[in-house]
Write a structure and sequence with these properties.
Elements: H1 2-26, E1 30-34, H2 38-43, E2 61-63, E3 98-99, E4 105-112, E5 118-126, E6 141-150, E7 159-165, E8 173-182, E9 187-196
Parallel strand pairs: 3-9
Antiparallel strand pairs: 1-4, 2-9, 4-7, 5-6, 5-8, 8-9
C-alpha cells in the first residue's frame, strides 16, 4: 500500500513539474505600447472582439529568423499563432493608428513580463502604396529594417525604449512590425503597430 501511495505521489509530482515546465516555456513575455500595438489595443479594451490576446498581450511568440524565416505571410502580426489570428485581421483598415511624422525621431517602448537573453530588436514598415485593408505580408513590407538595436545576449529590464528616425517619404496609414529576437531559443516576439503619417 505504501509503495502505491509513494508511486502516486511521485507521479503527481512529476505531472505537476511537467505542467510547470511546459507552462514556463509556453508563457510569453513582451509587447510594444509605443507606438501602441494591436495586442495592447485589445488588452486595454480600445478594440473589441480580439479573442484570447486581450488577456495576454505579451504572448505573440513565433519562430525567429524574420524576414527570411518566421511566421508565414498573412500571419506576421500574430507571430503565426492561430489563437491570436485576430491580430492579422486588417478589420477593413479600421485599427486605431498613432499619429507620427515621416523622417522624425520616434520612441519605441517595449513592456516585458519576463526577460529573455536578447539578440536584437528590429523594426520594419510597410511599403508606400500599402492598403490598411490588407494583411501584412513580406510583399507589402520593406524587408530591410529601418531601425535595428543590437542587444548582445543581454536581458532587458521590465521596460525599454529605443529612439530611431522614421523613414521619410511616407504618408497615410502604415504598419510597423517590431520583432524582438530571443538569443537562446528558436523564437521571437512580434508586435504590429498601426501608424498614420
Amino acid at each position: 500500500m505504501r509503495r502505491k501511495i509513494s508511486a502516486a505521489v511521485i507521479g503527481v509530482g512529476l505531472a505537476a513539474a511537467t505542467v510547470l515546465a511546459t507552462a514556463g516555456s509556453a508563457s510569453s513575455h513582451g509587447y510594444t505600447d509605443s507606438p501602441i500595438s494591436r495586442q495592447k489595443l485589445c488588452a486595454n479594451g480600445t478594440v473589441k472582439n480580439c479573442g484570447p490576446i486581450q488577456w495576454e498581450p505579451q504572448s505573440v511568440e513565433g519562430p525567429k529568423g524574420f524576414p527570411s524565416g518566421g511566421p508565414a505571410d498573412g500571419q506576421i502580426c500574430s507571430g503565426g499563432n492561430g489563437q491570436f489570428a485576430q491580430l492579422d485581421d486588417p478589420r477593413g483598415g479600421s485599427w486605431p493608428a498613432t499619429q507620427v511624422s515621416a523622417g522624425q525621431e520616434q520612441t519605441f517602448t517595449w513592456r516585458f513580463t519576463a526577460a529573455h537573453a536578447t539578440t536584437d530588436f528590429r523594426y520594419y514598415i510597410t511599403k508606400n502604396g500599402y492598403s490598411p485593408s490588407q494583411k501584412i505580408t513580406r510583399a507589402n513590407l520593406e524587408l530591410t529594417p529601418f531601425l535595428t538595436v543590437p542587444y548582445n545576449g543581454q536581458r532587458p529590464p521590465s521596460t525599454i525604449s529605443h529612439s530611431g528616425r522614421l523613414p521619410s517619404g511616407k504618408s497615410g496609414h502604415h504598419v510597423i512590425v517590431a520583432v524582438w529576437t530571443i538569443a537562446d531559443t528558436a523564437n521571437a516576439f512580434y508586435a504590429c503597430s498601426d501608424v498614420r503619417f
